[in-house]
Amino acid sequence: MAANVTVNIATVILAAGASRRFNGCKITAQIQNGQSLLAHSIATLKLVTQTANIPPAAVVLGAHINDDIMTITEGLPRIMNSHWQAGLSSSVKHAVAYAIDVNADALLLVLADQVAITVDEYLSLIEAFLHKRKTCCSFYLQDVGVPAIFLADDFSALMAIEGDKGAKSVLKQHAKNNNILMLPIENAASDIDTPADLAHWLNQQ
């Protein structure tokens, strides 16, 4: 990884959802070594951003905000999504607005519940983006997805997403136009949506 990144990449962790399928506050669930899901995501991204020499990750919060979460996110830019009921698109829009606010050239979008993705996999995505300077995404389960790095040129399309949809539609359009770099990251398929997902993850540790 190059020591001096000449592109201003904003990293945003999306963690504002109600986690209805989890029947509780998913982001404070203990996933390993007494560490919560959100703390694990933040720790991973801290290593990523430090190694890549880009600004610290920001976190979008919404449905669940309590003392634990405020402690976990202390020192990081917090983006409060008061419209989290509108679905994932509202968090994506908050992330884009933050990227614009900090004059970012690109936006690395991360889901807090993709617990299996390694530091090296994130760094590979950043390295590929820096090499090609084009929208770059993960490829898993035979499809495009996040984590992904979007150019500022994508921001208006991301702002146009509605409902409980993430950034996949923008990635799919790029793929259709053969205008995207896709990196196989099978670990991105492991996310925690339900208590059963959590139990499965803990059994693998």
Please supply descriptive tags for the structure shown above:
205 residues; alpha/beta; seven-stranded mixed beta sheet; two-stranded antiparallel sheet
Sequence-ordered SSE layout with sheet pairings:
Blueprint lengths: L8 E7 L14 E3 L2 E2 H16 L5 E4 L5 H6 L5 E3 L7 H14 L4 E6 L7 H14 L3 E5 L2 E9 L3 H5 L8 H9 L4 E4 L10 H10 L1
Helix pairs in contact: 1-4
Structure summary:
The protein has 205 residues and is of the alpha/beta class.
Structural summary, described in words:
This protein is an alpha/beta fold. The protein has helices at 37-52, 67-72, 88-101, 119-132, 155-159, 168-176, 195-204; strands at residues 9-15, 30-32, 35-36, 58-61, 78-80, 106-111, 136-140, 143-151, 181-184. Helix 1 crosses helix 4.
Gross morphology is globular
String of helices and strands: EEEHEHEHEHEEHHEH
Most strands sheet:
7 strands, mixed
Report the β-strand fraction as a percent range.
15-25%
Strand order of the biggest β-sheet: 5-4-1-6-8-7-9
**Mean pLDDT reading:** 91
Helical residue percent band: 25-40%
How many extended strands?
Answer: 9
Q: List unreliable stretches of 5+ residues.
A: none
Annotation field: number of helices: 7
Distance N terminus to C terminus?
28 Å
What is the SS-derived class?
Answer: alpha/beta
Evaluate the radius of gyration: 16 Å
